[in-house]
Amino acid sequence: MTISDQLLLMFSAIGGLNGLLLAAYFFAQRVDPIPHKLLALLLLMLSIRVLKSVLFFFNPDIGKQILQLGLSACWMIGPILLCYCQSVCRPDSSWR
Q: Which of 23, 40, 53, 59 has fewest C-beta within 10 Å?
């Protein structure tokens, strides 16, 4: 592995881990729980997707379960983003 590949791996992994830490921070917040929880879920799904792509790029022989986890996270990004936008734009509406 060349030095440029190592740097790419390091910065990509740091980006995914920062997303995980930020998601944990928003899960721990007590103020305005619904938008923060949805933002934390969105960041978690994006981080899972990024980390799966990093793993697949540097090791194409990873298991099918990890690939499926990344696809499931990608599938969940849309609905979570929609719910987050609705909770921020219309905070007084009901969730039915």
A: 59
CA distance 4 to 11: 11
Residue type, 55: L
Residue keyed to tokens 């592995």: 1
pLDDT, tens only, 43-89: 999 999 999 999 999 888 998 999 999 899 999 999 999 999 998 88
Token pair for residue 46? 């994006």
From 49, 37, 36, select the one nearest 76 (Cα to Cα).
49
Two structure tokens written together for 60 = 């194409």
Measure CA 89 to chain center: 22
What pTM, to 2 d.p., does this model score? 0.86
